[in-house]
Amino acid sequence: MIPVQFGYRRASSVDEALALLAEHGDDAKLLAGGHSLLPLMKLRLAAPEVLVDIAPVEELHHVRIDGEDVVIGALARYHDLQGDEVLREHAPLLAHVAGVVGDQQVRHRGTIGGSIAHADPAADLPAAILASDAVLVARGQEGERRIPAADFFLGPFTTSLTPEELLTEIRVPRQTGLGWGFEKFTRRAIDWAIVGVAVSGKRVGLINMGGTPVRASAAEEALARGASVAEAAELAAEGTSPPDEPHATTEYRRHLARVLTARALETSAGSR
Amino acid sequence: MKVTIEVNGGPVSAEVEDRTLLVHYIRETAGLTATNVGCDTTSCGACTVLLDGESVKSCTVLAAQADGHAVTTVEGLTGQDGELHPVQRAFREQHGLQCGFCTPGMIMATVSLLEHNPKPTRAEVREGLEGNLCRCTGYHNIVSAVVDASGQEVAR
Fold it and tell me: Hey, are the CB atoms on A106 and B55 less than 8 Å from each other?
């Protein structure tokens, strides 16, 4: 399968990428690792006229501490993140999740920023950054703005980024010493999660339980009231609207969310 | 666009369409046909090659993205005198294949896996090769081959 014709452009700095986006507007898509976009283009579900390859942008590969936050460059690859010592200490949930996305080959190419900007509700990283209470930094022609993760995801494959903006950084409040847990249920090893659960401290993010990654608010509130893991997990699917598909019905997904939340919360309690 | 990729140690340059996939560049432009196109959807791993020393699925990389970088295919593992690479030797000795279609990808994924984890357990091999599908073997001998290639004794 070969994608529809497009023009390939390369940006070696954020400013260059923004200039190319301003020039081509809606017709352009950013290409980072390409492991979400290229498969869609090969299936002809996406057909941008221009691809702006931002992989050469060197300024967005970092993981560093800035005050109370861990700051992750949007172009950091899963493979870099899974072994990153700073991340493992201060945001261990994200380091773990980066290590279970796709497979070895995918993790050599895929980037955290690419996954978040792509906003697939079945993807692992978006729910993990919700559970990490992250703030996303976007840059456009008018400057920089910070978007809380809770306001970032608007729908399936839809975010609050404008076509002229570039996601540059993910800022995560340090989760040092907090308990964390992650569970995903897949049909085969490398599949997307039918349902997944990411826990950091008392926050619970859900994968594939709606059109966007969502927080399990009812379960979180129960935990805050001092409820047991079992009691809180019973509420994990409250307020969610998971998709109904032949291989996984809505009710089945609700059941999975409860079971996986219990497991992730238990892991979290044991990891403190 | 003009693309130059160092393939198995030597530069390969060509004028290609922007949408050219790396796997097609390797097979059709460089003329190296060991790298197979299997599922063509980033699932099966038959098209795995090394890009700057790390395993990637070349059906999901544009030739343009590899421009200026180095690619190694299974042809590039064999020594000048035809001597097999340790991973190739181990796949042969442990009979880590049946039809052989997945083998070039399996071998390249193994080279990358052993780079990151030089002495993997059998369980770690299975996890590490989760992105490579084999429809013949049931994986048992493939796992043995990787353990053998890592210099560890293969449990019988």
Answer: no
Q: What is the pLDDT of residues B56-103, one digit of tens each?
A: 999 999 999 999 999 999 999 998 888 999 999 999 999 999 999 999
The CATH number given to whatever domain includes residue A12 is 3.30.43.10
Min CA distance, B65 vs chain A (Å)?
A: 8
In a domain, A213, yes or no: yes
pLDDT confidence band for B155 (50 / 70 / 90): confident
User: In which domain, by residue range, is A101 found?
Assistant: 59-173
Determine whether the interchain pair A189/B130 forms a contact, defined as Cβ–Cβ distance below 8 Å: yes
Chain B residues whose beta carbon lies within 8 Å of the beta carbon of residue A55? 65
C-alpha distances in Å from residue B111, one per residue of A86, A128, A198, B147, B149: 27, 31, 32, 12, 9
Q: Which residues neighbour A210 within 8 Å (Cβ) at sequence distance 6 or greater?
A: A121, A240, A241, A242, A243
Q: Which of B28, B117, B130 to mutate to test the interface with A (most CBs of A within 10 A)?
A: B130
Cα dihedral A154, A57, A60, A139, rounded to 10, equals -50
> Going by C-beta distance under 8 Å and a sequence separation of 6 or more, which residues neighbour residue A49?
A6, A7, A24, A27, A28
B2 close to A (CB below 8 A): no
Tell me whether 0.95 is exceeded by the ipTM.
yes
> Cβ of B63 under 8 Å from any chain A Cβ?
no
For residue A204, the domain's CATH number is 3.30.390.50
Structure tokens of B54? 């790390």
Residues A208 and A231 occupy one common structural domain: yes
User: Who among A4, A34, A108 is closest to B55 (CB)?
Assistant: A108
> How many other CB atoms are there within 10 angstroms of residue B142's CB atom?
27
| pLDDT tens readout for residues A218-250 | 999 999 999 999 999 999 999 999 999 999 999
Pick from A208, A212, A213, A218: nearest CA to A248: A208
Q: If you search the block for the tokens 């700057």, which residue do you land on?
A: B52
Q: How far is B59 from chain A (nearest CA, A)?
A: 9
Taking an 8 Å cut-off on Cβ atoms, the answer to whether B129 and A104 are in contact is yes
Picking from B54, B2, B56, B49, the residue whose alpha carbon sits closest to that of residue B29 is B2
**Is A1 contained in some domain?**
no
Residues of chain A in contact with residue B43, where contact means CB-CB under 8 angstroms, are 190
CA torsion angle B11 B16 B20 B22 (round to 10): 0
Of A7, A51, A105, the CB nearest to B55: A105
What domains are defined for chain B?
Answer: 2-76 (3.10.20.30), 86-149 (1.10.150.120)
